[in-house]
């Protein structure tokens, strides 16, 4: 009796351990793609590598203020992992995965750019990556390109008519507007420009008039006065030099209008008020607008249109794969059937 009870308890304990183990493993799975599991560890690893890359750029995603940004990053990384898994499955089905030799050659090329092996390892350590991580990334990239090449192999080059149509509808992409090379001196007020002296509007206007008198009446060099007095830290050190692209909408309208009214060598007779303060403006020279001909940019447009057509076809291919696949994204909001994402 005791023996049977002991066996029964052991069997029950074993069953509980199995069930507990299954529950634990199941909880560690964040998504499945046609039965292939993506674990929390895999997701965290990719997220942490991306967090380190942001950190190298001075952005700390682990801080409280960036909490939402990190949550969005996690969602985005998981979506990428799901897509990568799906594409790798399709590539394996079509026997398009790269050979070990192909991956080895690419690794060798990457190492060569660092010069020394220790420099390569140091760079990996800085972003918390291993050589195996690099190998896996290269494997995916080569696989991805093989798949893209096969799926888009029948995409035709754009016709002469399509190229001409694009050129005529996007001429501004292939030229430059008339450019005004100017020098200016800014006198900011009411805190419109960071780190500028505290002034009222009247004080800024008076300071601008005094500086104008120094230049026009006392003969002081415009650039020298700009380096001494301008509140525009971005142009002060180079004597106030600034380029106005006419009609591009990148310059304050009042500033552009005043600059366009000048002839080369002329200075505005009165300070010009903009959204930033009062300016003194001197026109140095005018660079005429340019426009490349269709013949000059024909190959560029053809390559762009063909690339866009291939991207569109491959995106459609990926969408179709996702529709047919059994995908369970367990971190996504539940809105009905989660098997198709």
Automatic annotation (TrEMBL):
EC id: 5.2.1.8
Matches recorded under SUPFAM superfamilies: FKBP-like, Triger factor/SurA peptide-binding domain-like
Gene3D superfamilies in the cross-refs: 3.10.50.40, Porin chaperone SurA, peptide-binding domain (1.10.4030.10)
Entry-linked InterPro entries: PPIase_dom_sf, PPIase_PpiC, PrsA_foldase, Trigger_fact/SurA_dom_sf
Keyword Lipid metabolism: no
Catalytic activity, as annotated: [protein]-peptidylproline (omega=180) = [protein]-peptidylproline (omega=0)
A GO MF label: peptidyl-prolyl cis-trans isomerase activity
PROSITE patterns associated with the record: PPIC_PPIASE_2, PROKAR_LIPOPROTEIN
Residues annotated as domain PpiC: 177-285
Keywords carried by this UniProt record: Isomerase, Rotamase, Signal
Tagged with keyword Transmembrane: no
Residues spanning the signal sequence: 1-23
Annotated segments matching region Disordered: 229-248
Protein's recorded name: peptidylprolyl isomerase
Provenance organism: Desulfotomaculum nigrificans (strain DSM 14880 / VKM B-2319 / CO-1-SRB)
